[in-house]
Amino acid sequence: MPKRILQGTVTSDKNEQTVTVLVERRFKHPLLHKTVRQSKKYRAHDPKNEFKIGDQVRIQECAPVSKSKRWEVVSAV
């Protein structure tokens, strides 16, 4: 099964080797037919501490690195 890749914005880089990425998805509401924006935050592994707040990045699923990290940063967009 392929690993999921998501794109989002770094909202926090305070922790060592970790960034928080805000991923926003848009979809049409099934009943109201209005475009809805929904966002979710993911904690991703950044081993070299190279990404800063505001960077657009791609994250990919990986094996658990810690209690809350199940994603790793693949590249900047």
TrEMBL record:
It comes from Tropicimonas isoalkanivorans. PANTHER family: 40S RIBOSOMAL PROTEIN S11 FAMILY MEMBER, SMALL RIBOSOMAL SUBUNIT PROTEIN US17M. One of its GO terms (cellular component) is cytosolic small ribosomal subunit. One of the primary rRNA binding proteins, it binds specifically to the 5'-end of 16S ribosomal RNA. Belongs to the universal ribosomal protein uS17 family. It comes from the Bacteria. This is Small ribosomal subunit protein uS17. The gene is rpsQ. The keyword Endoplasmic reticulum does not apply. Pfam families: Ribosomal_S17. Keywords: Ribonucleoprotein, Ribosomal protein, RNA-binding, rRNA-binding. One of its GO terms (molecular function) is rRNA binding. InterPro entries: NA-bd_OB-fold, Ribosomal_uS17, Ribosomal_uS17_bact/chlr.
